[in-house]
Amino acid sequence: MWRRVASLSPLVSSSKSRLLNQVQVAYGFNAWQMFSTQVLNPVEGGVSDSRRTPFVTFVLGGPGSGKGTQCTRIVETFGFTHLSAGDLLRREISSNSENGSMILSTIKEGKIVPSVVTVQLIQKAIETSDSDKFLIDGFPRTEENRIAYERVIGAEPDIVLFFDCPEEEMVKRVLNRNQGRIDDNIDTVKERLKVFAELNLPVIKHYSKKGKLYKIDGTGSEDEIFERVRPVFAALRYPVLF
Ligand SMILES: Nc1ncnc2c1ncn2[C@@H]1O[C@H](COP(=O)(O)OP(=O)(O)OP(=O)(O)O)[C@@H](O)[C@H]1O
Ligand SMILES: Nc1ccn([C@H]2C[C@H](O)[C@@H](COP(=O)(O)O)O2)c(=O)n1
Ligand SMILES: [Mg+2]
């Protein structure tokens, strides 16, 4: 079980703090992102490998914006573990869990499942994985999702990707998806677009204000989009040791 040291900053000496600022300027990351896979040991004030915390990327965008497609590419190239909130919920439906019928009707209507259910599924998936870097796809969809995650997991994401795509393109992609999803029909898509604009955009704005957002142009071919995503993760492969 991993956990993040909540009050890291007071433990960082002023010289380290200056160094972190220089690194942030040079690499475009903040101090928290740099410490995302190693946390300070509060007793010794040093870096402890025994209490690693995972690097978490939230992957956001409207329905059909290409989140799942690009996550597959990121997994192939950078070895992340992909957790799709939608897939976790659909698995609950197919396993006939106690929440299955509620989840099914919520997804059919294009609405959002209560955060307590989704956050629990994500928490379990993280805790039962050996991975130290996750893509959490399609989550948080609402401010309520975001706050519930931060409360339960005790951490914010390290970075957030947002695939920005015009509505007409998203609708076209969803209606051509042909994977048998119950929400891939014009009525549900219209509702999902409404929910995205009303409830998800505020989350995206929140992370933008925090300097964690990477807005990616979600138009063009899958390859073209991945070439916009690649530099974000390529930069993460240069660890800075303190
Ligand atoms: N750049 C692209 N150009 C054309 N089609 C694409 C592109 N990227 C993905 N697609 C296709 O569009 C459909 C939707 O993509 P994807 O499932 O990745 O979107 P998503 O953001 O995960 O959607 P949802 O939120 O509904 O799960 C899929 O059929 C996918 O193959
Ligand atoms: N945080 C989430 C994620 C997904 N859902 C529900 C509602 C979505 O329309 C549906 C499909 O998700 P997708 O595969 O498109 O990411 O699942 C939710 O309620 N809360
Ligand atoms: Mg998807």
From TrEMBL:
Residues the record lists as binding a ribonucleoside 5'-phosphate: 90, 111-113, 138-141, 181, 192
Catalysed reaction equations from the record: UMP + ATP = UDP + ADP; dCMP + ATP = dCDP + ADP; CMP + ATP = CDP + ADP
Keyword Kinase recorded: yes
Cellular location(s): Cytoplasm; Nucleus
Required co-factors: Mg(2+)
CDD domains listed in its UniProt record: ADK
Domain of life: Eukaryota
Keywords: ATP-binding, Cytoplasm, Kinase, Nucleotide-binding, Nucleus, Pyrimidine biosynthesis, Transferase
Ligand binding (CMP): 145
EC numbers for this chain: 2.7.4.14
Note on how the cofactor is bound: Binds 1 Mg(2+) ion per monomer.
Residue sites binding ATP per the record: 64-69, 177, 220
Main function: Catalyzes the phosphorylation of pyrimidine nucleoside monophosphates at the expense of ATP. Plays an important role in de novo pyrimidine nucleotide biosynthesis. Has preference for UMP and CMP as phosphate acceptors.
PANTHER family: NUCLEOTIDE KINASE
Quaternary structure (record): Monomer.
Family per similarity comment: Belongs to the adenylate kinase family. UMP-CMP kinase subfamily.
Written domain comment of the UniProt record: Consists of three domains, a large central CORE domain and two small peripheral domains, NMPbind and LID, which undergo movements during catalysis. The LID domain closes over the site of phosphoryl transfer upon ATP binding. Assembling and dissambling the active center during each catalytic cycle provides an effective means to prevent ATP hydrolysis.
Protein name per the record: UMP-CMP kinase
